[in-house]
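## Example record

The block below lists the input lines for one assembly entry, exactly as stored, with component labels intact.
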Amino acid sequence: MTEVVREDFLEEAELNRSSRKDSQTLRWTNVPFLKDLSRIRIAESSLLPRRAPNHLLTMGNWVVNHWFSVLFLVVWLGLNVFLFVDAFLKYEKADKYYYTRKILGSTLACARASALCLNFNSMLILLPVCRNLLSFLRGTCSFCSRTLRKQLDHNLTFHKLVAYMICLHTAIHIIAHLFNFDCYSRSRQATDGSLASILSSLSHDEKKGGSWLNPIQSRNTTVEYVTFTSIAGLTGVIMTIALILMVTSATEFIRRSYFEVFWYTHHLFIFYILGLGIHGIGGIVRGQTEESMNESHPRKCAESFEMWDDRDSHCRRPKFEGHPPESWKWILAPVILYICERILRFYRSQQKVVITKVVMHPSKVLELQMNKRGFSMEVGQYIFVNCPSISLLEWHPFTLTSAPEEDFFSIHIRAAGDWTENLIRAFEQQYSPIPRIEVDGPFGTASEDVFQYEVAVLVGAGIGVTPFASILKSIWYKFQCADHNLKTKKIYFYWICRETGAFSWFNNLLTSLEQEMEELGKVGFLNYRLFLTGWDSNIVGHAALNFDKATDIVTGLKQKTSFGRPMWDNEFSTIATSHPKSVVGVFLCGPRTLAKSLRKCCHRYSSLDPRKVQFYFNKENF
Amino acid sequence: MGQIEWAMWANEQALASGLILITGGIVATAGRFTQWYFGAYSIVAGVFVCLLEYPRGKRKKGSTMERWGQKYMTAVVKLFGPFTRNYYVRAVLHLLLSVPAGFLLATILGTACLAIASGIYLLAAVRGEQWTPIEPKPRERPQIGGTIKQPPSNPPPRPPAEARKKPSEEEAAAAAGGPSGGPQVNPIPVTDEVV
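Predicted structure tokens for the full assembly:
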């Protein structure tokens, strides 16, 4: 482009030189210099690498990728708000609770509204952890778009959100009830003959039905006594303590460092659910009965409360009844689903697992190749493994490292804690029998989508490289037999780790893939780069010295190792320019910070025109 | 369960209990419940517990995630030496702190939670755990030019003069590439570029 402009410039300069008489007759448009310089500028800007779009385009891309999550969360929040406001207004305005409000005020409505939200969220909290149900949904919805099925991966995030909402509403509920109890206590103690005190003294004489209003029956009863002797109070305290213990042991730090503490403590949810079911049995929330309202409506009779006992007054003493418990209606179905889920998990775990091969890799990595009847997997899925001889109740997740085309399934276990170390030690014993293994799964994640993208960018950081073993093997098998389902034409694989010791098995996989690709003559299919982040000047010096060697000194692979972290902007812009019209799937298994930078790059380098290059980001989470 | 550091969970639990004590105390004081002065105590106790428990101790194995801004409280907590290092002391302290809050319904939840935290600290103390502060790593100032290696100042060692004497044809052939006999004469002047 620049050359064309220059030629024009020269031509015009020639013309002007010939027609020019003197400088005063020159109009500025005839001066070729300025005009053509601007043309040169425009030409050059089209040669520039495409600058990253501004914030609006980034946001646009984000919305396109996440619209379903946003919609789902908005609906969930909206339902929460709606239920809260609806219950609040009901208890604040209804005549049935007129007398109750006289004692308690608005905190009655607060407590009931938060109770309704608690019911709703307790119903929702069990659903995202039903792994098998979600797998079933994922399988039946295979006709659904990628975006919709991806949302099922965020089940744990939703579980946590619902848990936070439960904590919030628990706080509101407890604080409101503290005020309620205090009001009840005060009106019980009051001797001023106000409406509140009259109402509180109701029904101690009437034995039938117990149409009392104030649960604090005598002047000497303390609120603490009522709390711990009523079903509602006792279950409330037990539920809240269970909730707090569950939350403190489920913080990220504890979960990642001491998984067993989290796993066992989280089973306190049984107390929470049981407590919730029977929390409302006592019927402490009282409203006026229908019959009593027909007889002496509060709007008419409240003013004349001194005369209720008079024989000739129209108004009688109001009668009250408690609420039937309704929490169980909300949680019954999810509890049944969850029980079915656990039964299914147990049933699947009882099926026999045959261990066909045990391999001890360097740096204490154990590979187990197994077979199980009826087991079929997809790439990148994970299974839960239990070893009864080590721990009866613990199930630990492991990504499958074998491809579906192979006739066994395998996992690579690295020593990273109590359970794994014990397992590796148990398998190292040469003379004792192999421990029995129970397997539940497989459970699916986003890497099932990796074959749908023309260009796939796979990033594995550290231990996160494991799902890619399965993916790469599977892609290779599909490629060899020219599977039509494989849309992938090019793979860019980035392997980032501190040192390759613990992943030498993956190294071997890459070496064998490299060899096979050379044999088939398809060297350009898989482009991989290894980044060693734990490097020092000795390693670099050594590498620099062996620069000319054909294979890398660290890994033995043809591709040279890079040191440090990849510069994603460069990588993404190179891929974008090499594949200007493709849909590129970016798959990451690694830390959150890396996910953030990759997500940003995806948004930045996707063009808003859907026909041009699009980057879709998928993250594995465990 | 061999490697669980119970103190880490006790720390989370105690921090949560502190917050619950503060909340319960605020509710009781603001609502002027009966015996609300226990609520006022609960706020103070809650703040104290939160400040004490905010700096996370160092894990024995592996790296510890620091809480945001905890280095200021680490310095203060470190000052008390054995009183904060020893988990028996913490267990007893939390148990004692939780008792007065148990007299008021609004703060009884805080009591229960803090008592549980005290129990977990006792378990941690029995297993010999200790609170070690997370020290900030001294920042290594990059030495400017430290990694630049000087070219060798001595010529490489050569075999003695007799071995160097070769027939003239080989010398002529080797003159193009290899080192010639005698002192080193560089065909291109070499300048030493030091940044």
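Chain B has a mean pLDDT of 82. Residues 57 and 131 of chain B are 5 Å apart (CA to CA).
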